[in-house]
Amino acid sequence: MNLAFFIARRTAQSRHGNSPGVAERIAVMSVALSMAVMILTLAVMMGFKREVTRKMAGFAAHATLSDIRSVDAPDTEPVRRTEYLEELVRSTEGFVSMAPYAVRGGIVRTADAVEGLLLKGVDGLYDRSFFDEWLVEGAWPRVGDSVRTKDLLLSQTLAERLMLGVGDRVEMLFVEEGALPRRDRFKVSGIYASGMDEMDRALAITDLRNVQRLSDWGPDEISGYELFTQDIDRAGEFVGALRRRLLFDEEDETANLVVRSVQEQYPHVFDWLKAHDVNAAVVIVIMLAVAFFNMAAALLVLVLERTGMIGLLKALGMRNGMLRRIFLYRAAFVALRGMAWGNGIGLGLCVLQATTHVVKLSSEGYLLSEVPVALNWGWWLALNAGSLAAVVALLVIPACVVSTVKPDRTIRYE
């Protein structure tokens, strides 16, 4: 048996039923608090990144292909749908799916309010899984049918502002430069709520042919394609490969086309998410520092309480390295107790938030309406192992105090 581990385990046992000392209990509580805060920090950070990225992909796909003149322009230039262009996109490495879309800015007018929004037309190829998940009332618009419908999917935010419900008819105005506004009427078929109010209040979904008609486009003219890749984190690689193919292609179908990833379309959102990594790193460093200083204080107290034992073991021939390992094992036991409590508290709070959504957020400032949490075995195990290793490794320095204990002085007073 490992002698240092055996002695550390025996000294960790309560003597005569006595509870641990004050310093040890403070150290356990400090490690527990630090561990709980670190788990919550990483769970919330990973939750934000996962939810915001997933919802941004639901609104804007992983990448979009459009006319270069439509970039950051209020009105889009049409892209002609051709078999050649679609085959070029499909044959690019990383491609998974694509769907045409058309957009047109408009104004919703009711007797009670007026709101501006972006009317987005889609067909049967559109991936509606995101909106099916967010649907709170009614049904998805009938798109791509043989007969064009005037169904409209409206966000809950807009529906409440306009005082509209499923089945209500709504009038929209479309302003054209140098011409009278065009007017059209739609029927609200469903209401969705993604939790991202900034996006919700700007987007409504309808049949692709409605937007084409309002823009005076033909059946083969669209605003562009929404593209999905194997992984949104690798969308940049797919976009780079497709850009090179478009650049060196000499056919007229690919002229003036540009492809952009969702990260490039909404850089402020993804830069904000990257800032969370720095915040999380700062919190983890601070919590580890708090745990270390409290553990160091507890270790020094343990050494002072066992000076007689240290002197006796030195007199029997035990070296300073072995004695340091005894107290490092002892400190590891304290840290493990604190980590067990911290994991219980941190994971319990994460599960509570994930199931009840008790902590809400202002969607205007945080994009989401509630605090998201994401638990993953990978980072959880890495956090626990890394925290324990870091604290115990740092305690090597205060553990060196055992080398200052003189056997002759300690035994003399026993």
Distance between the termini: 29 Å
Number of continuous helical runs:
16
Secondary-structure element pattern, one letter each: HHEEHEEHEEHEEHEHEEHEHHHHHHHH
What is the number of strand segments? 12
Integer average pLDDT = 85
As a percent range, the share of strand residues is 15-25%
Instruction: Give the low-confidence spans.
Output: none
Q: Tell me the major beta sheet.
A: 10 strands, mixed
As a percent range, the share of helical residues equals 40-55%
Structural class: alpha+beta
> Measured on Cα atoms, how large is the radius of gyration?
31 Å
Assembly category? single chain
Question: What is this entry, summarized?
Answer:
This protein has helices at 3-12, 22-60, 83-90, 129-134, 156-162, 197-200, 208-214, 235-248, 262-265, 267-305, 307-315, 320-356, 363-366, 377-394, 396-399, 407-412; strands at 63-67, 79-80, 95-109, 114-122, 135-138, 151-155, 169-174, 182-192, 203-207, 221-222, 224-229, 257-261. By secondary structure, the chain is of the alpha+beta class.
What does this structure look like?
It is built from 16 helices and twelve strands. It has helices spanning 3-12, 22-60, 83-90, 129-134, 156-162, 197-200, 208-214, 235-248, 262-265, 267-305, 307-315, 320-356, 363-366, 377-394, 396-399, 407-412; strands spanning 63-67, 79-80, 95-109, 114-122, 135-138, 151-155, 169-174, 182-192, 203-207, 221-222, 224-229, 257-261. The strands form two sheets. Strands 1, 3, 4, 5, 6, 7, 8, 9, 11 and 12 form a ten-stranded mixed β-sheet that branches. Helix 1 (3-12) packs across helix 12, helix 2 (22-60) packs antiparallel against helix 14 (377-394) and helix 12 packs antiparallel against helix 14. The longest helix is centred in the first third of the chain and has 39 residues, at 22-60. It is elongated.
